[in-house]
Amino acid sequence: MTEQEVAVVDFHSSQAEKQGISKNMDEAAEFLAHSASFVPLSPEEEKKMIRKTDWILLPMVSMSIDSFQNTGGLSSFKLFITATLGAVDKVAISTAAIYGLEDDLHLVGQQYSWAGSILFLGAIVGMWPSTYLVHRLPSAKYLSACSLGWSILSLLLPVSRNWGGLMALRLCMGCFEAIIVPSISLIIAGFYTKSEHPPRNALVFAAASSIVNGFLSWVVGHIPSTAPLAIWQYLFLITGSISTIWSVIALVFLPDSPMNAFFLTDREKYYAVQRLADNKTGITNRQWKWDQALEAVIDPKTWILFFFNIAINIPNGGLTTFSGIIINNLGFSPTNTSLLNMPTGVMSTMSAFCFSWVAAKWVNRRCLVTMMACVVPIVGAIMVYSLPRTNIGGQMVGIYLLYTYFGPYVVGISMAQANTAGNTKKSMQYSILYIGYAVGNLIGPQTFRANQAPAYTGGFIAMLACYCVCILLMAAYWAIAFTLNRQRIVGLDPSEEQVGADLVDAFADQTDFKQKTFTYIT
Known about the structure:
CATH superfamily: MFS general substrate transporter like domains
Number of domains: 1
CATH class: Mainly Alpha
Helix content: 55-70%
Shape: globular
Order of helices and strands: HHHHHHHHHHHHHHHHHHHHHHH
Distance between the termini: 32 Å
């Protein structure tokens, strides 16, 4: 038995002698204190446990967002499904536009742009109650309930008869969607160690929605014109139905943490929690702590990542709403446009996987990886902006390169997961970052002006500027994290008593500012 395992046993004994665990402690501390001792997992058993988690958990979260080394891939399929289906409902509007939505609803001027932006205005509004509720309620259940809400609203989109009706439904969808990224970030941070976050984020937040949406769009494109409904209405009916069914499944089975994961044995739950002690970020504590919320607000890292999320998602907002139109304007039919839009999801996913893998392997170089990743979409924006529109091949390559922006975004998510401790602080910071995501996506469609079609000069200039800003912001984050690490107390004697104290601190629900031995990932 290692020193850390001995310390955990001692920790259990001392805590069990007390009458419960303080409400200030993480729920993981109570779980360990009241769990029976188990024979330690062998390295092979630990790898098997991680593989099982990857094969069951990640796909659930993703479909309601890959595993690489030491993983087999199935637990990842449930987070993946949840996130992907939510995104399919959101991006379907781009395809609906090429199948007559604008004409049927009599949209003029910037009304279509606002139909894209309003979703994220709703997300900003919905984030405030969701920040509190996701902290007080089981995060997976709340995520699944919100998923069910936006799925039902997606089913109602076909009844829209004008711009006002479309806007009202999209606004409400945004309120439900607000919790996707914060809740999934909490779940991933509660199951995996810091080094395991980037590749799991890449799978969970993979842009499979564009692939799924492209395929479904191609399918509905073959519906005959004699059908009783418009093609775009069938698209929302299909995506909404699939999302609704999955949301009910996720509501029943998606776990919040290793402590209530149905696919883990009691022994595996015990060690799944214990192995997260080194993160020093905690797992779950449902007590809202205003001092931690304030710390999230005054932490400069929060605001650097907030503005990074705005800058990286301004291009996303424009591309999500206008990608189908941009490709269609190159002279392709609606059905071919749907097929040509599918590789955008492949590029986003490959970018997320590649840069996340590098970030996980290249220790303490995540900021540098993010900066390097921003260069690729810069090349894409330059190509689309500078090449003549008659150069169809070059234009398509440039458009596909634009979608590699997803790589730096996903690696940026892992920075917050690895460098934020304290459950209230995590909830607050993740919510602030998602507001940045929503603001960027709200602004993005407005950079594509109707009077600039088909070139959309303003949109592509905005993309170039945003990627450059992202590089500067990530350099600033690197400098701050490096400086904070230099100021930390180091060189503690790793005696058994100190190891035990570290374990207590790891699940004491303390913020990273208050943990003197907390080390920031750079």
